[in-house]
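Quarterly update from the structural biology core.
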Amino acid sequence: MKSNFHLLFYLRKQKNYKGGPMAVCMRITVDGKRVEMPAGRECDPAKWNSHAGRAIGAKEEIKSLNNYLDSLLTKVRNAHQVLIDSNQRVTTESLQNQFTGKTEKSRYLMQLLAEHNAKVKALIGNGFEANWQTVLQLLIELRLQLIIFSLIVESGDFSF
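Predicted structure, tokenized:
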């Protein structure tokens, strides 16, 4: 699945802006839909090239800002590549989530089983729920045994 994205760095002026440096923001556009995020840095508007999306100058702080923006661009490209490699649909939301590290909440087997037990208990009553409660207890015991076994293996103490 081919998808392209565009990344733009720009300065955002606050409503009560009186002068001085402005916040640098980035806009990611995928298929005409966009999402905007703060870049976490500021720049003086007189030293900003809006066409290039970079700061102008040779001072160390300007070079540092431009290097930081380049690193953000690289991170967004890497996030885009991860989405493509995993055959996920590339959208502004998925790209933003991959870039920021937000993932879907992982759900563990015991959480799912506990939720299921609660639903079954509410629907059916106590008769059927007892079997599922036993399965949950067995899974908890198995997890504890696996934790103990992994601690033994990590410590290297094989004298049982």
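The chain is about 50% helix and 20% strand.
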